[in-house]
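Course assignment 3, question 2. Fill in each field.
Student: A.L.
Task: Predict the tertiary structure for the chain below.
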Amino acid sequence: MKLLEQVQRGRVAAPRRTLLYGVHGVGKSTFGSMAEAPIFIQTEDGLTDIDCQRLPLAGKYADVIAALGELYTEPHEYRTVVIDSVDWLERLIWAEVCQKRGVESIEDIRYGKGYVFALTNWREVLQGLDALRNERGMNVILLAHAQIERFANPETDTYDRYSPRLQKLASALVQEWCDEVLFTTYRIHTKTTNEGFDRKRVQGIGTGERIIRTTERPAHVAKNRLGLPDEFPLDYRLYAAFVRGENPLSQIAEPTEEGA
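Answer field:
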């Protein structure tokens, strides 16, 4: 069959590859636990208070690869694999690189090549996740903590922004691989008080509302391929509805006429 006879059109429904990163304690793991039939590959010990199914804590890089391999080869009914978290996975990858190179710290590998060597392991992880997605039909959720980095924008002055807490080469690779990169945080307002003598005090005010931001802005890294709204409440059920092509935020009751 010729290639032109195999042209496809329209959106192809496929399991999502989602990176959710955010500030400490905002609810990233809870988001993952609300996914469809999730199984956690835990690289940090932070799931004890969450009702979820999880594999034993991975103490080395080989444990993560073994977990991916078993999820691929063994029968199971899990529909989502959650890695919690990829920044702690990075520590396991660095330890693996150091062991192979015979050094104590990845910084001991000259010219920053240790981080380049680590990309081989990152690609192995992503290939394993791709196999679960493509051949076992599993969604992938990667959880990460946030960091504040200096960003040298060639069009403006340098400024701070939130990004996943990963080394920059690994971060670029993971973000490119994902369909969505979502930033979650608390909604914060600021209040400025004039204290006199040309002095002002800025106070942060928060209500505890947790939100997801989906589009890149100067304050944070983000992307999505679903046409998501710029922000919505931190709730996996809302995200899943958007994936299905629904708009859960539009379900507002119509006003009624007086006397109706």
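Instructor remarks: Confidence is low (pLDDT under 50) at residues 252-260. The two ends are 62 Å apart (CA to CA).
Grade: pending
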